[in-house]
Amino acid sequence: MVVNILIYSIIFLYGIIIGSFLNVCILRIPLKETIVSKRSHCMSCGHQLAWYDLFPLFSYLFLRGKCRYCKTKISKQYPIVEFVNGAMAVLCFLFAGFRAENLANLDILIEVGRYQSGDAMLITDWFASVYDIEFIILSCILCSTLMVISVIDWRTFEIPVSANIVILVLGIINLVSYGYQDSRYFKFYCDSIGKNPGFFELIYARGRAMELVIGFFVVSVPLAIIYYASKGKAIGGGDVKLMAVAGLFLGWKLIIVALIAGCLYGSVIHIIRMKVSGEGKQLAMGPYLSAGIVTALWVGKDIVTWYSGFFN
User: Fold this and answer.
1) What pairs with residue 66 in β-bridges?
2) Which of 115, 222, 288, 301 could form a disulfide with 265 if both were Cys (CB 3.0 to 4.6 A apart)?
3) Cβ(156)–Cβ(148) under 8 Å?
4) What gap in Å lies between CA 255 and CA 293, rounded to an integer?
5) Of 71-85, 88-102, 108-122, 288-302, highest mean pLDDT
6) 306-to-251, 258, 302, 303 alpha-carbon distances in Å
7) Domain chopping of the chain, boundaries
């Protein structure tokens, strides 16, 4: 218990540190400024910030939400983004079932197929645990990128191309890992039964990699048709690209869950905003689709299993 608390505390700290960088991205990307070489500075007086002004979350609390130099109030966006990103990092590990004891024994039993008798063919493999940890880290990066997309789209009604490219790279890494893992297990199975698999059999393996490829198209193609048919009035081009690259990461089942959840969030929340604060009919879909993607990432498999139960 103590070790788990320590590990999750470290994960949260890493999360808020990354959250501090996300604030830089959120502010500078719409302005076409570099996010790497330019020093952090106060957005009001322009004074360059010292290292002790940049402790995520804690500097804001210590300075009581004001710039050390000009005393202008600091936007609450900074601590909110940092805290939420830290919390999402923790939740990514929690929903994946990560525990300290997972690190004590990386070798786990994997079913790679079945014998003719029907008995499961099991192997002990450490790579599955490594892949699980890799997927959690990729999920954390995905959530951080979605945070940037959400805030920028909320403010500007535009999703940065660079953010979609980051998610595309995450999807490709996930696709390669899935393909390698599945082809490796399929090779074990073929060796055990004396079969010599062909190249395309190894590539297809158990079909999980193909689920990701299908995920790239299954939602984005219908949305693209809507985009061109409505000349961009019904949905934005950035939203279409977001669902394509997210589908490559999640797979076709979960990206459908993400779309449904995102549309539900957008419908309910924006109707409430229209009634309460008099918002217009135009809305930024990026934040709601991002929330749907995170929902699918964390509990999508449970939703799919629950829904599939109606047909058994």
Assistant:
1) 73
2) 288
3) no
4) 7
5) 288-302
6) 18, 15, 6, 5
7) 1-104, 135-312
**Can you read off the two tokens belonging to residue 301?**
């498999």
Mean pLDDT of the chain: 86
Question: What is the token pair recorded at 308?
Answer: 């599939």
C-alpha pair distances (Å), 89 with each of 78, 145, 174, 229: 17, 12, 18, 38
Cα–Cα distance for residue pair 267/225, rounded to 1 Å:
21
Centre a 10 Å sphere on the Cβ of residue 69 and count the other Cβ atoms it contains: 16
Contact 179/205 with Cβ under 8 angstroms?
A: yes
* Other beta carbons within 10 Å of 156: 13
| pLDDT tens, position by position, 15-54 | 999 999 999 999 999 988 888 777 777 777 766 777 677 7
Sorted by sequence, the CB contacts under 8 Å of residue 63 that are 6+ apart come out as: 53, 74
Q: How far apart are CA 271 and CA 287, in angstroms?
A: 15
Q: Where are the alpha helices (DSSP H) in the chain?
A: 2-28, 58-62, 77-95, 101-104, 127-156, 161-193, 199-204, 208-218, 220-229, 237-250, 252-277, 285-308
Q: Return phi, psi of residue 41, to 5°.
A: -150, 160
Cα 70 to its chain centre, rounded Å, is 37
Closest CA to 88 of 40, 16, 193: 16
Whether 292 and 265 have beta carbons less than 8 Å apart is answered as yes
DSSP letter at 207 equals: S
Average pLDDT over residues 158-167: 96
Residue 31 burial (CB count, 10 A): 7
Neighbours of 195 (CB within 10 A): 12
Distance CA 300, CA 98 (A): 17
249: nearest Cα among 127, 134, 106: 134
Dump pLDDT digits (tens) for 297-309. 999 999 999 998 8
Q: Which residue reads 């500097």 in tokens? A: 59
Rounded to the nearest 5 degrees, what angle is found at the Cα of 2, between the Cα atoms of 14 and 6? Answer: 10
